[in-house]
Amino acid sequence: MQKEWGLKMTNRLRKMEDPKTRHRRHEAMEAVKILDSLKNDFKDNLESMSYFYDLYEKIYCNGEKLHFDKPTVGTMCIQVPYEIIYAAGAIPVRLCNGFYTDEQLGGEFMPTKSCSLVKATLGMLSNKDIPAAQKLDLVIHPTTCDQKTKAISMIEDMGYEMYHLEFPRVKESEESREYWRRTIRKFTKDIQKELGVKINRKKVKEAIKKVGKAQKVYHDLNELRKLKPSPILGKDMFLITNAFFFDDIEKWTEAVKRVYEEVKEKAKEKYNPAGKRSPRILYTGSPPIFPNLKLPMMIELADGIIVADESCSANRLLNDMVSVDEWFMYDMVDSIADRYLKGCTCPIFTQNEDRKRRLKELIIDYDVEGVVYQSFAGCQVYEMEQRSIAKEMESLGIPMLYVESDYSPAQGGQLSTRIEAFIESLKVRRRKKR
After folding, report:
1. How many structural domains compose the chain?
2. Which of 96, 272, 283, 369 is deepest in the core (most CB within 10 A)?
């Protein structure tokens, strides 16, 4: 009787909550569940990963904020040049969102058959509760994703100050390169007006070196994944790269360096966080954004190990560094522009030969045995591109599993069964080769 009364009182209190508080509580529950699984469902977690577990708990479970003393700039895509934002004395916070709670809220703004990530991002922005950010002084949107581009007027109606970066859809031509360079030169001037700051040569040089240092330590850690056995799980790598979206870059760099040192020592002892026969997997396609890490987690709980990835929330984010010939202001700005265009392997481009080449390089360098390609339901470019990627994988003799999903937890059982069957088929294939 007392238990029944307690449940009734709990339900009454929940009904009395304002919608924003209730929404925040549901998000926290979603984040807690994933973090608990990341920590407890895998054996022998790295001690150095505690920095990242604590960081996600503070930001996503407890709702703590960062970056109180500097302007905060929201970015809608990795094609926004971080170096220019840092040179302006601001903090970039990527707004791509992985909460199913927000996806449901964002469904009010988008058609049913729309990308989960875009819906979740709109839901988050409409609720005005940005992880890590106390406020957004400016939101920068490059015209990459069509659905995000069409959603911009909705975001402006929510009261956000928007800045548009016109991104070319062809990258092979000199005309596109020059067009993008002009766009970034203009952006460098405009952000100074928007934030009321002054960017000079020294600040741009320092920003390039700051981001380059972060990229270097990530690259060093990523190189260790080539080893057999691979000494770090993919779920940890995704947590690390997702943290780059919002963490203080210098703290992030030092934390990754500690992970690298621990993993390097464990690798000397042939440390294996996966199983003895775990197939080596390349993950590609739609980006796994916290807390929507269900597919990478399913792969590794099914006894696979993700040794490489090609997505805009992981390897692609930190792969290419700015290459500067002359340390003059607009030589550096042009070099930054080149880095973001030339190195991009997003499927939005009219041609995707660079993406095929990059996947082939990863397969060879990381001795990949199978590819898992995820596309969020409603993300047309990834849905369309999977055919050509599947054909490329077939020519290389690499099995590929194509998964179309959204953020809903209801898909868990079906997805898990398909992934387990794929992992088992890779094990059988390996045995037949012996």
Report:
1. 1
2. 283
